[in-house]
Amino acid sequence: MRAHPSARSSRRVLGAAAVLLLTVAACGYGSDSAGSGSSGESSAPAGSSGGDALSADSVTIGYFANITHASALIGLDDDGAIRQELGGTEVGTQVFNAGPSAIEALNAGAVDLTFIGPNPAVNGFAQSGGQNLRIVAGAASGGASLVVNPDTVDGLDDLAGKSIATPQLGNTQDVALLNYLVGEGFSVDAASGKGDVTVVRIPNSEIPTAFESGSIDGAWVPEPTAANLLTRGAETILDEGELWDDGRYVVTHLIASQSFLEEHPDVVEAVIRGLVTTTDWINENPDDAKAEANAALEALNGSPLPEEVLDPAFDNVEFLTDPLAATLRDGADHAVAAGLLDETDLTGIYDLSLLNKVLKDEGLPKITEDAGLGVR
């Protein structure tokens, strides 16, 4: 395994063999997908990179075992940039299969920060009255699409009467599908999924089997589930990026507990600094990132992702630290319109001050757009 080159300083050398836990058969692939029949939570041992601890002796960081969380998976590797930036502060990790589990863990103090999709973050913020979390950085954009069985669905004009799967009721892809259907004039009950088009909520790990059995006609899903379905005969009829300005929309970002952010801003800053370095490395070395991911898959599961799944899955995700706040705001509006979220004031959901401090230190442009939802 090749060692990651230093991006900006010897403190941020990314080590060899990043262990990307991109489990195909057992874990969900979406940024906030549900696992197969589980609460979606597991833990990894804590460790530190040595040196002096920051203001906290330890920090616990959550993430999902999938491609849209690759910056977390690489940065939290034993020699990854996030661990390097944290110095002697011990790092514990929690791997989640579902957004609600990650929010519950954050609320309970079981994790201090977590990578997560936009809709669980919005729901968590709303349910706490804006008291539990802040979005402190972006992580990934894109990577979701509507793929269908071409034998039963003849394009976007042929969705009436069809069954389309999403990973979870109210998850990011579920809201996107419901919003699209309403915009096209279809009537669908958000809670039950029944209507002109039937929306079926199935964990990502089970969607390929449902597709092959013929119990669904298609799915609005993130990578690599979408690429997986293409290898089983599906066709893409809509890339979600086509619905957003510049093709960009938030699929993963980094949130922090408000109390932890207030008490340990230096720790949060270190995590963000490591995230910026990791993101740069992925973008500068996409082939190496894919190769290391596949090598880790083979070591963990006995077999790698086939190239026809891995390549398009990585190509369809953009890794960036801009949280794309306007797309979160619009996504929240879509959830309200679909009846999945009560109208709520999201002011204060963003605190990008530490991200902008890191970007300034690195000579990079600040993120000036928070869609009016930043801390006042």
Describe this structure in words.
By secondary structure, the protein is an alpha/beta fold. The chain folds into 2 domains: 248 residues, Periplasmic binding protein-like II (D-Maltodextrin-Binding Protein, domain 2), CATH 3.40.190.10; 99 residues, Periplasmic binding protein-like II (D-Maltodextrin-Binding Protein, domain 2). The chain is built from 13 helices and 12 strands. The strands form 2 sheets. The protein has a 7-stranded mixed β-sheet. Strand 7, helix 5 and strand 8 form a beta-alpha-beta unit. Helix 3 crosses helix 4, helix 5 packs across helix 12 and helix 9 crosses helix 13. The N terminus is likely disordered.
Task: Please outline the helices and strands.
Layout: E1 41-47, E2 58-64, H1 70-75, H2 81-86, E3 90-96, H3 99-108, E4 113-116, H4 118-127, E5 133-142, E6 144-148, E7 163-166, H5 172-183, E8 198-201, H6 207-213, E9 218-222, H7 225-230, E10 235-239, E11 250-257, H8 258-263, H9 265-284, H10 286-301, H11 307-315, E12 317-319, H12 325-338, H13 353-361
